[in-house]
Amino acid sequence: MKTRLFSIMTILLTGLLLLAMGLTEPVEQDPWDVPSKYKKMKNPYADVSDKEQIGRVHYAQHCKSCHGTKGRGDGKKAANLDTPTGDFTVASFKEQSDGEIYYKSFIGRGDMPNFEKKIKDDEDRWLIVNYIRTLK
Hints:
The chain is mainly α. It has a single domain, classed as Cytochrome Bc1 Complex, Chain D, domain 2, CATH 1.10.760.10. 48% of the residues lie in helices and 0% in strands. The chain has helices at 2-23, 36-39, 54-62, 64-67, 91-94, 98-106, 122-134. Helix 6 packs across helix 7. The N and C termini lie far apart (59 Å). Mean pLDDT is 87; it is low at 22-26.
């Protein structure tokens, strides 16, 4: 009887361990369908010096809570989202065009909100893109 109980407990604990391991694996984000208009879009403020640090200030106000101070997707709210937040420091992110980053940052989808009404000034939007590009 003790052997049977031990076997059942071992099987249950092994099952729980395997389940827990499966739940902690990183969840990959579905690919974004960025319209070609945005993929080809050029950043008209790519060479603008942001002396007032407008991009950094807007990032801190609107992005940091999910994407984290350094853009790694580890902000305070990130764990509560249904989809993983983007990591702005990885090579695959850096390889995107400014237009793709603009689209994802301001049009959004799912847990990533649309910021078109919150950040209306086009220059401010592009300065945020510029700031995101500096995160390492």
